Every structure is written in structure tokens, then in C-alpha cells.
Amino acid sequence: xxxxxxxxxxxxxxxxxxxxxxxxxxxxxxxxxxxxxxxxxxxxxxxxxxxxxxxxxxxxxxxxxxxxxxxxxxxxxxxxxxxxxxxxxxxxxxxxxxxxxxxxxxxxxxxxxxxxxxxxxxxxxxxxxxxxxxxxxxxxxxxxxxxxxxxxxxxxxxxxxxxxxxxxxxxxxxxxxxxxxxxxxxxxxxxxxxxxxxxxxxxxxxxxxxxxxxxxxxxxxxxxxxxxxxxxxxxxxxxxxxxxxxxxxxxxxxxxxxxxxxxxxxxxxxxxxxxxxxxxxxxx
Length: 284
Known about the structure:
It is a single chain. The protein has helices at residues 5-11, 34-39, 63-79, 164-176, 180-183, 235-244, 250-262, 273-279, and strands at 19-24, 27-33, 47-50, 53-56, 90-93, 103-106, 117-128, 131-139, 150-151, 154-157, 187-197, 202-213, 227-234. With 284 residues, the chain is an alpha+beta fold. It folds into two domains: 5-12 and 117-279, Alpha-Beta Complex (Nucleoside Triphosphate Pyrophosphohydrolase); 16-109, 2-Layer Sandwich (Transcription Regulator spoIIAA), CATH 3.30.750.160. β7 (117-128) and β8 form a beta hairpin. α1 packs across α7 and α6 (235-244) crosses α7. The longest helix has 17 residues, at 63-79. It is globular. The two termini are 27 Å apart. This is DUF4743 domain-containing protein. Residues 117-258 form the Nudix hydrolase domain. It comes from Skermanella cutis. InterPro entries: DUF4743, NUDIX_hydrolase-like_dom_sf, NUDIX_hydrolase_dom.
């Protein structure tokens, strides 16, 4: 299908009837597949598992107690093969962006528990006489997620314990060799959100977006092994690749579609324009 819209549909394909709510106190913080929910009944000191949902025990009343209990559960799920491995990077469990974390959880388990997660993406672009050009990275083939797929200049998840600004600087240096000063010239331009079902579970994700104008003599340099090469492409070439293929990592398509809308490359005259604009920001 040669359409921008199919990427938005792909990132929002899910069936919530296959899941049960996951609650901490009175707040729903995620979704768990029925099969995993049944598997969690053996951790009766941590969860109260019912047909109407999974509840973290009220006896686990603090951030530290909840986090420690969840860590024990994840160690057991890795041991029995339910989860392949831990990432050793903690994500906050929150009811909304900016809310106080209720606990932290290893990144590897976020989709298994349908936890809302956040990340950031930087569109690195160059102005040339013939128009805008966008830096495109190719992910290394040894990546667990989307190996060999095309990516933004910088992209990363938002871990526990870092501010968004601190994470922006960290990811920009690791993924593109940008200095802190250069990274902070990136302009925040909004966010996209989606809810996607995958093999592990459910991904209700929000990506904070930044545009960073770069000089023509800048060349990105990856330092963390995630990207094997960078290419500077005319925006029309990027747009065609998004429209006609699945070569980009699934959520990067949404980031680029948003860039195309904001820079006037996709116009209201396009029949599915409103579906695109509204589909980029789904309530989670």
C-alpha cells in the first residue's frame, strides 16, 4: 500500500479485549495479556489477579517496595523464559507525563505490562539551495528492535532518573556525536502518540519531537553502536521512502510524517490529510 496513513494504522493496531487492566492503588497504569495475567497468580504476595484486572498489593505501599517486588517478579519471568532478558535500564511507571512515579520497571518488561512510556526523537535537517535535506540513520543489524531499519538522527527512550533535557543531551552525544550545546539548540515541536500491540504485549508510547537545523559541514558520528551509517537525503526522497515502503522503523514513520506536515510538504488538499494529522496524536 503506497500511503502515509498505513503507518499510523500499523502503529495503532491492538485489541484490548485480549488484555486486563493493570492497576496500582486506584490508578490504571497498564495492560496485561490474559495468559501473562494467569501466569502472575503464582506471585500472590505481589499481585491480586482477577478477571477484572491485576492489582499490585496494597501492602506494597511505597515506591521502593513496589519497585523491589516488581524486580523480583521480573527475575523470575526471565528465569522461566517468559521475558528473554533484562535491559538493566529502568523506566518510570506513571499515570501521566510529569506525574510522580509509582514505581520503576526494567525497560524489557514495559510492553509485557502495557506501561505508558515516553521517548524523544530529533529530526536533524540541513537547508540547501534545492530545499530541505534530512539526516537518516541506518540501524545496526545486531539491534534487537528493527535491525537494519532506517531511523531518525537521534532517538531514545525516556528512562527513570533523567530529565528530558538530560536525556536529550545524552542521546544526542551517543547517537550522533553532538555536543551538549548543539543538542540544546534542538527546538521542541510537539509530540506523537500511538498504542501498538506487539509480540510482548502493548506499547502505549508518546514521543517528544525536536527539530535541529545543522550546518552543511556537520557529519553525524555514532558512538553507542546503534547506527551503522548516516545519510543526508533530500526531503522528497525521505517522503517517498516513507510513503511507499516499510524501510523506516515503525514509529519513525510517524515522526517523519509529522515533520512533513509541519514543513508544508503534506497539504490539506491531500484527501487523507485530516486523518494523518489527527492520527498522529492518539489518546492513550
